[in-house]
Amino acid sequence: MKKKLLSLIVLTLVSFMIFALPTMADTKPAAPDTHSEADMKDMSDQEMSGHSEAEGQTEVIVAKEGKFQVSVQSEPEKPAPKKPVNIMITVKNEATGEPVLDASINVEMMLMEAGEHGNMAGMDSSSATTLQGQAKLDNMEPGMYSVTLTPTKKGDWTQDIFISSPTLGETTVSVPLTVTKTGPNWILIGSVGGVVVLAGIFAQILKRKQNSSKEV
Amino acid sequence: MSQPLKPKSSQKRNFLKFKPLKWFLQSSLYPSIFQWAAVLVFAVIMVQTLAGPTSAHDNFGTAATWVLWWPLLPLFFFLFGRFWCAVCPFAWVSDLTQKVFGANRKAPNFLRKYGLWIIDITFIFITWADHIWGVVESPRGSGTLLLLILGGVMVTAMFFERRTWCRYLCFLGSLSGNYSRAGMLELRADREICKTCTTRDCYKGNKKTAGCPMFEFPMAMENNANCNLCGNCIKSCPHDSIRLSPRKPTSEFWSMTRAHFEESFLAIVIVGIVFVQNITMLDFYQSYLKWAGMTLGLSKDIAFTIIFIIAMTTPVLLLYAASAVSKRYSGETIRNAFARFGYAVIPLDLASHMAHNLFHLLAEGKSIYYTFMGLFGVHIEGPTDFVSDPTIQIMQYVLVIAGTLGSLYTAYRIAKKNYGTQKALSVAMPYLVVISIFGVLNFLTFVVRMSMRM
How far apart are CA A182 and CA A174, in angstroms? Predict the structure, then answer.
């Protein structure tokens, strides 16, 4: 009986280990993002339009707005809450294809809450869910500007990119961004751990039966 | 089909005559010293893939598994047989679980009989699932796969004796068995010595060492498929009967006496798997997806599944057709001929697998270092390649050509051994044509630059 109890305790501990390791990993500080020295601050309510079709990957979203050709990329591929996201915006002259180097670019990120709050359909306008930053010219490639923002919550965000150039005028581009939780899948881990524990108990019963039949 | 068992390797060249090596293999250091290192890395990989960064680009688990381990694996099998299986962390978990909780029941007959088919089907399913749900490119997908395997290993070890999982259920078992059979190293027993043995310690084990974890009896072992070079028989044999010898690559295929249909089936399916991996990286594939979506209204997953089924079945049908044509000269049943000559494509499988993954290893290899440093909070960005794309491509061509020639030669030698020199060419010809087609198609897919994993 003691052996059985001991086995169960060890088995539970092993299963607990399976649970504990990912928890330990989850509390590990993230690698700092050193992409840009972007200006980050909260901002007040802004009217915006957006949609939530993005999959949060590094797909390049290209938009042709007036005289501009704008492509937007985000890094990391799947942004996580409270982790910095580097937004890279490449601006080109739609007519010539030349990079635009004299643009002033401001980015506003706002969390869409699927109409939970009544003031503006689908938008959360609290300061924690509305972010702003000014994109600076990046040396990665001609016409690329970048800014780092840190989304506070998971969900579908929209990025309004305001572009102003002395030579080409002004435009606004809206791009969606999905922020997802990065934690472990506890249901899966729990299920596997549970199956292992149950199998362990069953195996112990079998083992005990075998031993007792041998003794007889 | 059966002939008297006769060791083909050069028994004169026995690495175990080198005393320091023999001492090391007989000591408790082997293979535990490698196992511990593997377990340590594996623990980090598990944590990273289950709970680390969700972007493959930043995840050490993804880099270590799919950019380092997976590309090196076929090379390991070729050089050292199934040595990896001896140091595999899952095997370590299996042994430990069994030691503490194991009921040590016999492996069920169902597994013994259909284990290879289960392995084949699982391997094909995982390859398909990788494209549908994302296993390789998604750290969480990789973590899920590893966790499910870990759970399976532990449950199996709790009930059944030895390494039942490794022998009958591991999805890599058939692949590693096939690749190691093409390899350059073999462990065999001296049958003359074994005839006089009454203890059978190599199989049963003794007080100091456990018996063969893979259910093999070295005296009767005539292929590498289930020997993982764990060293237990080297340690336990009281008569010094075990030999570790180098041999001519692929020679096992034409010297073997028993062909297994399941092994041949997987060998030929792998041709399709490598092909489908390459095809999804071509421009044609994207055009196909668009066409299937717009014209037929098919989702990406269904469109891929169609391509996948075609890629899997075409090589099987071609080999079947070759067997049907060859039957005229050999008089063999199609099933037997299929089983016998299916092994001939393994050198091409191995070479294509290595060529495909060579790109990931050499073009993305530095990401292993970058992501490793990320574990300590150091963010490094930079080029991930060790050598330029054209150089990698040349290496890929060389590998595919070598693999094709190896397969052609193997098919010819199988025919020569089984049907005599006079009939050899006519019996082998349909297979030579099919292997050449596979070789050319593989070569063509490597002309186009592949997609990155990281």
Answer: 25
- Which DSSP string do the residues of chain A spell out, in sequence order? -HHHHHHHHHHHHHHHHHHHHHHHHHTSPPPPP-S---EEEE-------------SSSPPEEEEETTEEEEEEEESSS--TTS-EEEEEEEEETTT-PBP-S-EEEEEEEEE-TT-SSSSTTB--SGGGEEEEEEEE-SSSTTEEEEEE---SSEEEEEEEEEEETTTEEEEEEEEEEE---S--HHHHHHHHHHHHHHHHHHHHHHHHHHHHHH-
pLDDT tens-digit series, residues B161-176: 999 999 999 988 888 9
- Inter-chain CB proximity A196 and B105 less than 8 Å: no
Chain B residue nearest residue A33, CA to CA: B379
Q: Which stretch of A21-25, B13-17, B252-256 has the lowest confidence by average pLDDT?
A: A21-25
Q: Are strands A85-93 and B242-246 parallel, antiparallel or unpaired?
A: unpaired
B297 lies in the same domain as B151: no
Cα distance between the two ends of chain A: 18
**Cα dist. B271→B84, B129, B355 in Å?**
23, 18, 13
Architecture of domain A39-179: Sandwich (2.60)
**Rounded CA separation B430/B3 (Å):** 25
Same domain, B271 and B419: yes
Residue among A130, A136, A180, A126 at smallest CA distance from A160: A130
Task: Show Cβ contacts of residue B281 under 8 Å, excluding neighbours closer than 6 positions.
Answer: B448, B449, B450, B451
At B285, is the pLDDT very low, low, confident or very high (cuts 50, 70, 90)?
confident
Contact indicator for A129, A153 with CB cutoff of 8 Å = yes
pLDDT tops 50 at residue B446:
yes
Considering CB atoms only, which of A31, A183, A192 is closest to B51?
Answer: A183
Residues 6 or more apart whose CB falls under 8 angstroms from that of A150 comprise: A40, A82, A83, A84, A85, A131
Choosing from B246, B273, B300, the residue where a domain stops is B246
**Environment class of residue A147 by beta-carbon count within 10 Å: exposed (0-12), middle (13-18) or buried (19+)?**
buried
Mean pLDDT of A199-215: 88
Write out the two tokens for B186: 């073999």
Q: Which residue has the tokens 């490597």?
A: B446
Sequence-ordered list of residues with C-beta below 8 angstroms from that of B263, at least 6 positions apart, any chain: B116, B174, B177, B178, B225, B339, B342, B343
Nearest CB to A25: which of B47, B100, B101? B47
B50 contacts A184? CB cut-off 8 A: yes
R_g (Cα) of chain A, nearest Å: 26
**CA-CA distance, A147 to A131, in Å (whole number)?**
11
B327 and B402 housed in the same domain: yes
Residues linked to residue B160 through DSSP beta bridges, in sequence order: B105
What sign does the CA torsion over B276, B278, B284, B285 have? positive
Predicted interface score ipTM higher than 0.90: no
- Find the mean pLDDT for residues B198-214: 94
Last residue of a domain, one of B196, B229, B246: B246
With a cut of 60, say whether residue B324 has pLDDT above it.
yes
C-alpha triplet B219, B224, B228: angle, nearest 5° = 90
Top-confidence residue, A181 or B12: A181
Distance from CA of A203 to the nearest CA of B (A): 6
Domain residue limits at B37: 18-246
Domain count, chain B: 2
pLDDT tens-digit readout, A87-131 = 999 998 888 888 998 899 999 998 886 444 444 445 555 667 888
Collect all residues of chain A within an 8 Å Cβ-Cβ radius of residue B154: 196, 199-200
Q: Tell me which residue in A29, A76, A200 faces B58 most closely, judged by beta carbons.
A: A76
Contacts of B378 in chain A (CB under 8 A): 31
